[in-house]
Amino acid sequence: MELRVNGYAPVAWPFRPWNRLWEELDKGMTESFAPRADVTEDAEGYHFYFEMPGMKSDSVDVRIEDQKLMVSAERKRPEWPKETTIHVAERTWGRMYRAFTLPEDAAHDNIRAAYRDGVLEVTVPKRPEAKPVRIKVELN
User: Fold this and answer.
1) Contact of 112 with 44, CB cutoff 8 Å
2) So what's the pLDDT on residue 56?
3) What is the rounded distance in angstroms from the CA atom of residue 63 to the CA atom of residue 69?
């Protein structure tokens, strides 16, 4: 079997000692990362979309504290058998955390969170009094 990266077979032997050193230094350590996010607004509220592929929904925590939307989760590092040689390890694991300060017109009631296809969507509605109201002008 030959390992190929982007169609090329890398000459790995000069890097093996360095890879082993990094593997040893990395044992037991976890990474912390912030997921990429999109934030949109419409007349009804604010929508937050977090890229979280491979997360288990029961590890995701969404909360509001001190006018901040806070999202955290954890992806466990895969356990490989001791005799396994890792050629490429680019996936991110460990604790992820992201927080956004909510605008003054954000309501704390009826917040919805849904996780589907690796994306967490959190919808924060606007307070009713914050929504624009159109007033009909009567002609006299």
Assistant:
1) no
2) 85
3) 6
Other C-beta atoms closer than 10 Å to the C-beta of 48 total: 20
Cβ proximity of 101 and 25 under 8 Å: no
| Structural domain contains residue 4 | no
- The DSSP call for residue 106 is B
- Indicate the SS3 state at residue 19: helix
Which residue reads 């969507």 in tokens? 121
Residue 81 gets the label, from left (phi > 0), alpha (psi -120 to 50) or beta, of beta
**Contacts (Cβ under 8 Å, ≥6 apart) of 112:** 121, 122, 123
* Residue 6 belongs to a domain: no
Q: Can you give the pLDDT at residue 8?
A: 52
Please choose, from the candidates 40, 32, 34, the residue with its C-alpha nearest in 3D space to the C-alpha of residue 122: 40
CATH number of the domain residue 36 falls in: 2.60.40.790
